[in-house]
Amino acid sequence: MKPEETQKSRSRGGGRPAADESRDVRGQLLLAARDLFTRHGFDAVSTRQLAAAADTTPAMIHYYFQDKHGLYRALLEEVIPPVLAGLESRDGKGGSPLSVADFMQAYLGMFGANPWLPPLVFREMQEGGDDFQRHFVERFASRARQLLGSALESDRRAGRVREGLDTKLALVSVMSLCVFPFLARPMLEKVLDVSVSRDFVPQWTAYASELFYRGVQP
User: Fold this and answer.
1) Is 109 within 8 Å of 180 (Cβ atoms)?
2) Domains (ranges, CATH) in the chain?
3) The pTM is what?
């Protein structure tokens, strides 16, 4: 082999696989994964299908995410942790204590900006494997549960929530108010003529918060 051929082989052997440098391949893979996983479920989608939908090759999935599981985790990691971190930065710190209204505003804002997220997570929690469920609970859901419990206790101390309230049922109520519009979006839009859009989110946030507090007030 000629020296120049050896050099070319080495340059192809490592680093990023050949791709269109003008495109955001990583972003396109995330968009493709979001669409295909939501419609078909994680197990039913292959890396070849993901790559084809992003107009790239399976090698790019390996380059950016290692494998399909890494791509799935990246979808969630880009959306959920910043919201949790923002709530955690307030919880137990100086200033106004975290309230249930704060939690609902943060979560409904996240879902409004990413309406694909609740259906995706719901599907995998219902039909997905144990690995996904364990990862989601340990990485995200347990933190949200702790924050929401802390917010409920802050509201109780502030006199906004009555003593003796069933904490678990209260948490179910909050999560239902946050998640239901995005899971039932087709029905709401076709049957009730309610558009679950960005304009809907602030209106629903105010309404849902008032509804919750009226139901749990002393």
Assistant:
1) no
2) 21-74 (1.10.10.60), 79-216 (1.10.357.10)
3) 0.81
